[in-house]
UniProtKB/TrEMBL annotation:
This is 2-methylcitrate dehydratase. It comes from Albidovulum aquaemixtae. Belongs to the PrpD family. GO terms for molecular function: lyase activity. Residues 14-242 form the MmgE/PrpD N-terminal domain. Residues 269-433 form the MmgE/PrpD C-terminal domain. InterPro entries: MmgE/PrpD_sf, MmgE/PrpD_sf_1, MmgE/PrpD_sf_2, MmgE_PrpD, MmgE_PrpD_C, MmgE_PrpD_N.
Length: 455
């Protein structure tokens, strides 16, 4: 059905029913189990990023300019504890997570959802102390499903490549509408406001000049939560084009049948996903052939256009280190892993890494470009000092549906990132409480009590 303005209202009806009426037991059990693992993964990155400069600035700024007012629109900040407005809380946490690029993503969206969905759940759950684990996971899943389809719709309808904040604002608005009990009309206004004010920031501008802006997720979260609160108060917004335009309908047709959340990738490294295929290709060559970094004379990386556009020299900042290509490949070859300690401080001047960066060449490979964004492919050649040429062949990044991680892998990653900051006991408590959210009798508050104190 179309209104007088040509808007397709049937799609909104489908979205509204999904957002407001879906029960937790309408969602397949494996989907809820996957949601718990993704929540755990994002909380691990949130913990690890808490001491980082960008996260500290975001939280301090939220405390300064997004102070708590009414009790029904306030929350404690994640891994901080100070009380601010709901929009301020999700802004701070999403900005914090976004600045340690180790959180989940979804290939078709060319972006990330958990970075806003997990902070939104934690913030809103503070106002619902009796929230069950399954209901919490259902809200999280709805955020993923709405945001992911808004992303596909936006990418298909505009020429520029906008950051995740541009579309994950709608996922945040949908979660808030569900958890705050908004009506269908209020949900429609919230989605429209969120889309209108969501940051249409240009992703490739950030790739060319990496900074703390990252993927725009903090401002997307701020816009989405603010939109829901405005709609709840009666503020009107134009219908969301990414939902209700006739050409958007195909992107929403499988809502409630195909669960995008099950197809998110998990990052083994806190580095832009575009670099992961090359990192994995180099890593696997080194494991197979047993050479050390000092034997390497030359590295040749071929990948897709966006990967080759990543920072090509030695980075001066953590942001540039995370949006680089030769640098993380060199770190992997020198150190055998990539942790937070390798992308900050003195590690940015590591002479062994710098030597390999200087010996790396990049090229776009048409066959890898043809498979982007649905795949993240690269191939690597390494020339050793004895003249031996080692070739990886085409390699896909690990951690997604193409090369999935097990639940054990995801839990191990959480502990690797969270335990050094939180301590083993607190990290273990968060792990156990998150993985225990699926039974009907579970309560989100059993997890929430571990999430707000400063590490």
């Amino acid at each position: 059905m179309r209104g007088e303005d040509g808007i397709e209202t049937r799609t909104f009806d489908r979205v509204a029913e999904f957002v407001l009426d879906t029960r937790s037991d309408d969602i397949p059990a494996p989907t809820r189990e996957r949601a718990a693992l993704l929540l755990l993964d994002t909380l691990g990155i949130a913990a690890a990023s808490a001491p980082m400069e960008a996260g500290r600035i975001a939280r301090d700024t939220a405390a300064r300019i997004h102070g708590a007012g009414a009790d029904d629109a306030a929350a404690r900040m994640l891994f901080d504890g100070r009380r601010v407005s709901l929009p301020g809380a999700v802004y701070a946490a999403a900005t914090q997570v976004d600045n340690l690029d180790g959180h989940d993503g979804y290939n078709p969206t060319k972006g990330h959802i958990g970075v806003v969905a997990a902070p939104t759940l934690v913030a809103l759950a503070g106002l619902r102390p009796a929230l069950s684990g399954p209901d919490a996971l259902a809200a999280l899943i709805i955020g993923y499903e709405v945001a992911g389809r808004a992303a596909l719709s936006l990418h298909a309808s505009v020429s520029d490549y906008h950051t995740s904040g541009a579309w994950n604002a709608l996922g945040v608005a949908a979660m808030a509408a569900r958890m705050r009990g908004l009506t269908r009309d209020q949900l429609r206004e919230a989605l429209g406001i969120a889309e209108y004010h969501g940051p249409r920031s240009q992703m490739m501008r950030e790739i060319a000049h990496p900074t703390m802006l990252h993927d725009g997720s903090g401002w997307g979260a701020l816009a989405g939560m603010s939109a829901a609160i405005l709609a709840e108060a009666g503020f009107a917004g134009a219908p969301a084009i990414t939902v209700e335009a006739p050409e958007a309908a195909p992107h929403w047709a499988d809502l409630g049948r195909f669960w995008q959340i099950e197809h998110q990738y998990i990052k083994p490294y806190p580095i832009c996903r575009w670099a992961h295929a090359a990192i994995d290709a180099a890593r696997e060559l080194q494991v197979a052939h047993g050479f050390d970094a000092g034997q390497i004379e030359e590295i040749r990386i071929r990948s897709f256009d966006n990967a080759v556009a990543l920072w090509s020299g030695m980075p001066e900042t953590t942001s540039k280190a995370q949006y680089a290509l030769p640098f993380p490949v060199a770190v992997m070859l020198v150190h055998g892993r990539i942790g937070l300690e390798h992308i900050s401080g003195a590690a940015l001047n590591d002479p062994a890494v710098a030597r390999l960066v200087q010996r790396t060449t990049l090229a776009t490979e048409p066959r890898h470009e043809a498979r982007f964004p649905d795949g993240r492919w690269a191939d690597v050649e390494i020339v050793l000092d004895d003249g031996q040429m080692l070739r990886s062949g085409d390699t896909h990044a690990r951690g997604g549906p193409e090369r999935p991680f097990s639940a054990t892998d995801i839990v191990a990653k959480f502990m690797e990132f969270a335990a050094p900051v939180l301590g083993g006991a607190r990290a273990s408590a968060i792990r156990d409480a998150t993985l225990a959210l699926t039974p009907a009798e579970s309560r989100f508050s059993d997890l929430a009590r571990h999430l707000h104190e400063t590490p």
